[in-house]
Amino acid sequence: MSLKLHHLNASRSQRIVWLLLELGVPHEIVHHSRDPETRLAPAALLAIHPMGKSPLLEDGDTVIAETGAIAEYLLAKHDPDHALHPRADSADFPRYLEWVHAAEGAIFLPGLFRFYLMNAGLLDTPLAASMEAEQAKAMKTIEGHLAKHAYFAGEAFTAADCLMAFQVQSAAAMGALEALPATRAWLEKVQARPAYKAMLDVGV
């Protein structure tokens, strides 16, 4: 078995666990735990990649970091029939590509900034208020999209749904889906997928 995923608890690497299960690709999961005090990744990950972050994918001698890059690598090698990513000439492809990158970009970053500000005791600042407004705009954008489409790339489930799930789950945990029925319905739908349930068994 050549594929090895380094998975950190309570992290976005759960999305790659889910994607691997959707693809049905044989793989090994190496579990890592955050430091209980600092909540940072363990130093062991630095021995694999200089950034010391998770997820990290090992494929033989190849090591790949960054969730989006790992997803694209896996899909290019293990989804030849395009079951989980639209072909480049598909009408869904631009939409798919946008959400795959939004999952680590404009949709995700305001929440990350706000998390750091909270840890620094700086939530009562103009910057924190700005990030909160950006988070609200992101969720409004997601709701508007899912009110028109069954999934992020269109009418079929794709890897974009795996990657976007962390953001939506985080919002749900904070009670932010109360007024977002389309987003709530999408989350319930993807959480019912067998691969999603199997991912929970691996550990989030």
Observed structural traits:
2 domains; four-stranded mixed β-sheet; 4 strands; Glutathione S-transferase Yfyf (Class Pi), Chain A, domain 2; 204 residues; Glutaredoxin; alpha+beta
Describe this structure in words.
This protein has 204 residues and is α+β, with helices and mostly antiparallel strands. The protein has two domains: 3-83 and 196-202, 3-Layer(aba) Sandwich (Glutaredoxin); 93-193, Glutathione S-transferase Yfyf (Class Pi), Chain A, domain 2. The chain contains eight helices and four strands; from the N terminus they run βαβββααααααα. It has helices at residues 14-23, 67-78, 93-102, 109-119, 126-146, 159-173, 181-191, 194-202; strands spanning 3-8, 28-32, 56-59, 62-65. A four-stranded mixed beta sheet has the order 2-1-3-4, with helices on one face. Helix 1 packs parallel to helix 2 (67-78), helix 5 (126-146) packs across helix 7 and helix 6 (159-173) crosses helix 7 (181-191). The radius of gyration is 17 Å and the shape is globular. 32% of the residues are buried. The mean pLDDT is 92.
Taken together, the total number of domains comes to: 2
Distance between the termini: 23 Å
Shape: globular
Instruction: Please list the strands of the largest sheet in the order they lie side by side.
Output: 2-1-3-4
